[in-house]
Structures
1.
Amino acid sequence: MSNSRPRPPSDTPPKAVIHRLSLYLRELQHLIRDGSETTSSTQLGRLLGLTDAQVRKDLAHFGQFGYPGIGYRCGELVQEIKCILGTNQAWPVAIVGMGHLGQALVGYRGFEQQGFQVTVAFDIDPDKTGRTMHGVEVHHLSAIERVAREQSIRLAILAVPAAAAQEVAEVIIAAGIEGVLNFAPVTLTLPETVHRVGVDLAMELEQLSFAVVNRTQKS
Amino acid sequence: MSNSRPRPPSDTPPKAVIHRLSLYLRELQHLIRDGSETTSSTQLGRLLGLTDAQVRKDLAHFGQFGYPGIGYRCGELVQEIKCILGTNQAWPVAIVGMGHLGQALVGYRGFEQQGFQVTVAFDIDPDKTGRTMHGVEVHHLSAIERVAREQSIRLAILAVPAAAAQEVAEVIIAAGIEGVLNFAPVTLTLPETVHRVGVDLAMELEQLSFAVVNRTQKS
């Protein structure tokens, strides 16, 4: 990146730190919505169950954002984090696999709220390709290199069956896609240069099972 | 809970700590798969970008799990965390809303790997109710109280359109469901006694956009 934000020369922070940037971003967005102008590492830490030292350490990977006697300015820190995450720009995203999951994700409004827009989809089923589904054109997977280049698409959501995930991932990587969000519960073997994130929906259910088995503590 | 695991008398830890229990659990499962028998707060912290102090503090909410000079026994800590999360037992789960997302989630293998089984579904569309879709019986939503009681279902995945989410959530809560995993990007207003977790898929895309905009740092 070539913006002027100071960035310490350290190595890339661990993925979990980047994930916590998203958590900080959401909490800051909530704080702003609720009328707060400033916050602190203590408050952010309390909201997320982290020590204030951990909050400061996480943010220090990316620069110096606080003000003595004030703390963090919420709106400013939101912009800084978006800049770090790259979501200060809009991202066109492709969905690969227009089965039930792909079709559900086309209409998922949570993406657009954070700057991601599903602009195109791919499949290999002749009943789907060449059509517009949920407002998005579905191309044959064989066209992905051309379409991705034309639309400057660098991120793709892989929504194909688990058995096909590795093979299809290799096709889209060969087409120049740089980041893959993989919904299949399989680990993809891809070149180190390609970024991939797996979605683990069971973690969310674990939050619930915890809450339900421990509910007697609350009452 | 009535098991004999020692539990400190502290108040309920923050949700983010429970989320990190899931992260610890996955890392421990990976370590075991890779042949490790023991680990340490330093190693777990390094894998997740947390200080070792944060790891120890997180786990200390639930008891004392390490051994002097050894650290944590991976298999034992997996069982302890499953016990804390409640996933040492199997959970039957209902899906409410059998549109594209619901149908995709019925077949999602990531749930079963962690002890959750989708056993029943609900919808209000007469083209869907009374049928078996993807191996799961689809009942009319009006039957949820009876079916949930018969099948001892306490957790539900809400996969309905955003505009219907609040209304349907109230129906399933009235039927006795205690925990709701909500895929709609809306905040549900529910009684405090009901646990709800929202799924924010944009966070995963933010991991990717970060990685892609920062990839030049790697090379």
Note: Chain A has two domains: 15-85, 91-202.
2.
Amino acid sequence: MKAVIVIGDGMADRPVRELGGKTPLEVAKKPSLNWVAKTGVCGVIDLIAPGVPPGSDTAHLALLGYDVFKTYTGRGALEALGSGVDIQPGDVAFRCNFATVDDNFTVVDRRAGRIETQDASELARDLKKVRLKKIQVTFKNTVQHRGILLLSGPGLSARVSDSDPHKIGKRVSEVHPLDDTVEAKRTAKIVEELLQRFHEILKNHPVNAERKKKGLFSANIVLCRGAGALPDLTTLPRQYGIQAAAINAVPLVGGVCKAAGMSLINVRGATGSYDTDIEAKADATIQAVKSHDLVLVHVKASDIASHDGKVQQKVRMIEKIDDMVGRIVKNVDMGETFVAVTADHTTSLLTREHEGDPVPVAITGPCVRTDDIEEFSERACARGGLGRMRGIDLMPTLMNFLGKTEKFGA
Amino acid sequence: MKAVIVIGDGMADRPVRELGGKTPLEVAKKPSLNWVAKTGVCGVIDLIAPGVPPGSDTAHLALLGYDVFKTYTGRGALEALGSGVDIQPGDVAFRCNFATVDDNFTVVDRRAGRIETQDASELARDLKKVRLKKIQVTFKNTVQHRGILLLSGPGLSARVSDSDPHKIGKRVSEVHPLDDTVEAKRTAKIVEELLQRFHEILKNHPVNAERKKKGLFSANIVLCRGAGALPDLTTLPRQYGIQAAAINAVPLVGGVCKAAGMSLINVRGATGSYDTDIEAKADATIQAVKSHDLVLVHVKASDIASHDGKVQQKVRMIEKIDDMVGRIVKNVDMGETFVAVTADHTTSLLTREHEGDPVPVAITGPCVRTDDIEEFSERACARGGLGRMRGIDLMPTLMNFLGKTEKFGA
């Protein structure tokens, strides 16, 4: 028996006026998602707890079966892991953005106009030249404005605040220690110095001069957030004796999966954006199931559409996810494969934020206790046979179907 | 966005033979409660955990988002707070009843025939004269037979038992320490001495002589229960950055709300009894919503009807609550207000006690994920889109709608 988990990032939503009071999932044409619901058992999931808006990282930790209150150590380390940065115990990593500030260090754009990866790479090349005493600095840009800052060396702490003020129109925050330790104070100071030196390099950089000419946002600062150290997880192979793989284009999700002992499968054409090659992801999943017990496939852009408030774009992304699910279920042996579909959180098109509303889930496969739900959506699944679950319960539920959970007791 | 929570005390029930196997909620005419269900999302709530009968204090603590197993410190302190008694850390407070005992200290009536507040006040005046060495004694009668005893001074403990045997026909219990500490032993001894002295004053009191003449129960003893110290709560303003108010006529509930950082709004005509002025409570709620993010309005008498086994009275009280909800939803801006209706526990007309059965809940407001439930009742709501929740999850659920919960993760 095998299992595939399909995660539409931020796919769940609230009723939207523009859609006649329906959610994007409710209006999307989604024959394959509905097929999973109809042939399977449905429910809703509170990823962390009712009302608590999850991040993509904590949500995926929960969906992989981890207690986030005990294991979560910040975004930075997970994103570093997922970006192929070699993070070791004791290191501290940050998620970074290239951003745009004015002369007063007030943030004008938090993503430097979603700068193209090529421009960002050219800028990053010069940031990598910065050296500090005793501390090894690694800066890696990933996709578009996104990047990783890794500090390695003795006496570091992840208990430091963000320089990212998280809002346009606010000034860049000073990085301060979040506890009274020498390590936190020292780390905050190091980061402050480093970001200052980055700014010196960026503000007069030829790439930015060129961007200004073109009327584009200048990537004149690096904002950092989510300082984190490596989490201490019992991997899925160790926990359940399975081989597991993840297919996704987002470093943060990849990092969670890697920390859980899953192998990361890179798919050409998987972009983490609207143009992602959904067929390629489906085919990679179909291939991966042959050599793994569990395959997680994650699609990002449904979340991006919500953050951008793009209603029709979100509906279309859900329809793309539906296509992907259709291709998967037609091409894996459904006589021995369980397919679970869910989201990692609700992202509201209205508030453009992650919200704490539960997400729908449907699981099809051999001998699940089917219910009478025939539609994959927030409201339909709420009436399903799985009832209301927590995120942490999905993995044991699937592993139980696969015969991989151990009896507790005699 | 604002939120109103309407709590019908003990409003939930079990099917009643006298009502043709229906519950009081099921037979009551309740167009407004049904409107909340129909336009909203429904569910059932286990206040503490399935099968555990909650007190009004623990139920309200849970509904305000607190883990009762970690925060509950006994009824006395909460009731003292709600009665305007100035309780400080280290103090121990008891909920008290004026009651009637025979010559063998067997309880004849636990409420001295629900003695009028005026008679109780006259008796209390003389109890207030009692002095002890090193310990400051405060006795305050509140409504009818109800009162508060507060002990202030060094070396006290709330770990002492009740003198109230909780049943008619039983003898008054000796107050004993509930742990091995010197403080608990000392406190038990102090309370015993004090209650003895109260009895001496009461048994020959002119007020009681007069009551006997009229054929009324003599309030010849004070029964105490629920020894408690101040709970240590993170207030709602601190937790969510909101302003919150509570409208109710019951000191115990008021105390919980005050401990949670809510301001208490006194409403003329709110009696905590069948004759409570429901219009005045509705109007106070409508007014309070203007200056607060969250308003809790509590109606007591549905619970009293159950404790008294009065079936029709309970149905009528539910209809009064329905009137109140109708007046509220017609007069607040429902475009920016969430209204949640629930009960703090099931009180069975048959057993006349709090029971551990879940209570119905319905939440209406902008962009909730409506379900197909059209009736506010125990059985109808159990099929609703919220599923089965815990009491502690209601507040995060509402605060999520108000955009007041913080994202956990990135």
Note: Chain B has 15 helices and 15 strands.
